[in-house]
Please model this.
Amino acid sequence: MDRKDHKKEPGMNRRDFMKLAGIGGAALSTASALSLTGGVKKAEAAKLPAGLTEDELVILGHLPDQQIGVDYPQGETITVGFLCALSGPSAGWGLPGMTGNNIWIDAVNKTGGLLVGGKRYPLKMHAFDDEGNASKALQGARQLVLERDVKFISAIGGDPANATAPFLTKHKVVYASLVPTDMHPTRPYFVAGGDITPQCNMFNALIAKMVLPSEKELGRPLTYALTTQEDIMSRQVGAWEIGSAIAMGFEIVYEKFFSVDTTDFAPVVTA
Model:
């Protein structure tokens, strides 16, 4: 196809892209549910645990190694921790995470527990509100490990991650963060696989490039602006997004951070 013919092809606009993404997401969810349920007869044949909702079946569909419906001996309950801001300006990071963890744990426990080494271990989560504060995070880590005997901590990351690293490493407690957390040989129990946010933010520039007119059509370079709250997590995630935008050929024209206690956003969006 030559360039002239290609120009006649209609481009993908934002509405088309979102529609395609919605259809794809719905199709994947339906496929996941059907792959596990496979109809009532197959579900009965597999002896799926009673009480599982369709949403929980979709969640469990991402855990093929758990052999849902297959009987295994039950082990002791394993306690896990959730160490995040559940109040204050940073609660928007922690509250959704705690809800998501509870949904996942409830689904797994309905199957008898997490299958590890031929046994199913029920899970119980204990949460501590660190308010996004490093010193309180260390206090919470001590409480979760020494008083609750947790073996794994789910968290957001940032300053609390750095504050708790020495203690959690000493006690060999696995720590998985949502945002990027420094990993090196002195932190063998910090799990990078727990972070998803930066990867998502890297796609923002790609999506923008797909739905915006080209530089040639605009007659100028594509520009990119980023504003977010002032904390270590936002700075880490923002660095990924800005790096992605630069790699995609955008000209960065604005990158500023606002205080976490900001309530009037008019000056922010009009800057």
Remarks:
- Confidence is low (pLDDT under 50) at residues 1-12, 17-41.
- Residues 14-37 form the longest helix (24 residues).
